[in-house]
Predict the structure.
Amino acid sequence: MNDTLYIEGFGAITQHAQLADFPEGPRGDLPKPDLNLLERSLRRGLSDVTRLFMHTAQLALKDAESSAHDLHIVFASAFGELGTAEALMDLAFDEGSSSPARFRHSVHNAAPGLLSISAHNTRASTAIAAGWSTVAMGLLEAQALLSGGEKRVLLVFADESIPRSLSDAHAYGPVGVALVLSQTLGSAPPRATLSRLQRAGRVEQAKLRDPFAGPNHPLGPAVLLAQALEAGAGETLQLGEGPDPWCAELRVLRAEPAPESAP
């Protein structure tokens, strides 16, 4: 299997004024997500995680000068549509009923499904949940798809805040990161390469930045990847947890300002 992934574009959104402030810097209000990827008729009742997905996907596609029409979409989220699930459980408990409108947004692949409808994308999509290995498994899925013949993959990581009624142990805020990936060089030079996606080994782990420091966000590795891309700094990134975590090597080829959302 081809080891190298070309990062053609990326986008990110957090509650921090600067991406470099994650995870320890001061939090502010989350910028209003850009939903221009979706037809207006599909924007009603969207969850926070779907809004994060659309915003970052828009940024990554813009950065890569690409369209959502013909890319395989991979959505990786540790917890997915938890806010919608909580609302449905409240409705069932309080009124003994459900909501078909909310239920259609409660499944884990709601976001890529809505984007595929709006973009008239008839290709397959993938939705992944792997806890604190979600970033590593999302990248591994993208690598497998590209090695299997896909030309480009839109990989989006997104998680909303965990409702306190479900857990008060997770105090982190919402995060979204998106990448447009390929394994062949196009007409424009890629931003970076990501290679050697593999287990790190116990010895090497001590040299890596801990992506789960601070709020222990399951998508912390994706934000560190976006930070490195924005800073133009290559490094070996830790992508998972445990004594033998998944890692990958980032080499930046084109350092430019991070893409900005449409007004």
Q: What stands out?
A: The longest helix spans residues 48-64. Residues 5-189 form a domain with the Peroxisomal Thiolase; Chain A, domain 1 fold (CATH 3.40.47.10).
